[in-house]
């Protein structure tokens, strides 16, 4: 490597520590780097020649940037865009003040001044600066870590709280989700047993009946598997009398969609042959295997539904 470039990632062979080059002086007498891991990391100043020597003897090696995989713009939520705009507006004057901003004393002064100007805490400015420098020195990285929030695809664990009833210690399940505002009662967390009944109802009442709707399957489920929680009124319609013991229709729909893809439904209700013939995705055709005109020929045979020649 003949020269050091800004934004290059280096790894120390002895410690496996990753550092990003933030600045290279025009005279090539010093560089500024920052450690990629950890919070509140401060930029460090190094002699240019020392780093070139470490690269030459193998103590330093160039690595791939671990923060290249940024989300596309259309995948950004409104909160991510808002956070990005707010953070960039706050730190833009600071990060453009190079190389002076790499002096720790001057940087602390500018952070205090800027925090007062934008009306936020000094630590917020420091966190945004760290994020900007560690992840690639571009405003596109100031999205926060909202992609790490939650547990997509994972069933949420049951939380419990202590309660007393007739001087006996009970463990009560905490209801997940927002409190009800229209329907009475507290609501029901869907357990593995409830999910098992939803799967059975889906297979028996929905997938095996092409004319059935999910609402029909839900009503059949609560009538068959939750008879003590419902009653049949004078119009022969189902009324739920114990709403805290029966899954709601919205919960039924949620778990049905979570455990069944659209392709699974079509194959079960309309048959595998219909799916393969009509809806199967085409991943390619024979022209992909041809390198030019005349390279491949195909013969197609169709059985006609009439006699084309005399039997004699």
Q: Could you describe the 3D structure shown?
A:
- The protein is α+β, with helices and mostly antiparallel strands and 312 residues long.
- Among the domains are: 9-63; 78-146, no CATH class; 188-270, no CATH class.
- Helices cover 36% and strands 14% of the residues.
- It contains nine helices and nine strands.
- The strands form three sheets. A five-stranded antiparallel β-sheet has the order 4-3-2-1-5, with helices on one face.
- A hairpin with a 2-residue loop joins strand 6 (160-165) and strand 7.
- Helix 3 crosses helix 4, helix 5 (192-207) crosses helix 6 (214-225) and helix 8 crosses helix 9.
- The model is unreliable at 163-171 (pLDDT under 50).
Number of helices: 9
Mean pLDDT: 83
Low-confidence stretches at least 5 residues in length (pLDDT < 50)? 163-171
What form results from the Cα inertia axes?
Answer: flat
Task: Tell me what portion of residues adopts beta-strand conformation.
Answer: 5-15%
- Largest beta sheet: strand ordering: 4-3-2-1-5
What's the order of the H and E elements? EEEEHEHHHEEHHEEHHH
Helix content: 25-40%
Topology:
Blueprint: E1 9-12, E2 18-24, E3 30-35, E4 44-47, H1 48-56, E5 60-63, H2 78-95, H3 104-118, H4 122-135, E6 160-165, E7 168-173, H5 192-207, H6 214-225, E8 230-232, E9 238-240, H7 249-259, H8 262-270, H9 272-279
